[in-house]
Amino acid sequence: MPLSRQLILSLFSVLLAVFIGTLMLNVSNTQDSIERQLASHAQDTATSFGLSISPYLGNENDLPLIETMMNAIFDRGYYRSIVLKDDKDHILLEKHNPDSVDGVPTWFMHWFALNPPVVNSEISHGWNLVGVLSVQSHPGLGYQQLWGNTLDSFTLISFIFALALGLLLVLVRLITVPLSAVVQQVEAISEQKFEQLQIKPRTLELKVFVKSFNKMSQRLNDLFDRLSSQAERYRQFAYSDNLTKVGNRRAFELAFDGLLSDAEQRPHGFLLLIRLSSLSQVNSNIGFVAGDDYVKGVCENIQQLLATQSTPCALYRLNGADFALLLEDVEEAQAITVTQSLMDKCNAIEKSEYESGTVHIGVGGFTYGDNKGKVLEKVDSALTKAVTEEQRWQVSSRLSMVQSHDIWREQITLLLKSGQADFVAQPIESFSGQVEYQEFFARFRDPRNDQYLAMAELIPVSIRLDFAQKLDELLVLCALAKIPHVTGSVGLNLSRLSVLQPAFQDWLMEQLSLLGESCQRVILEIPERSLLGDLESFGAFVAKLKAIGVRVTIERFGAQFAAFTQLRKMRPDYLKLDGRYIKNIDCEEDNQLFVHSLVNIAHGLGIKIIAERVETEQEAQTLKDMQVDFVQGYFVGSPAALKC
Question: Which domain holds residue 141?
Answer without folding.
Answer: 3-162
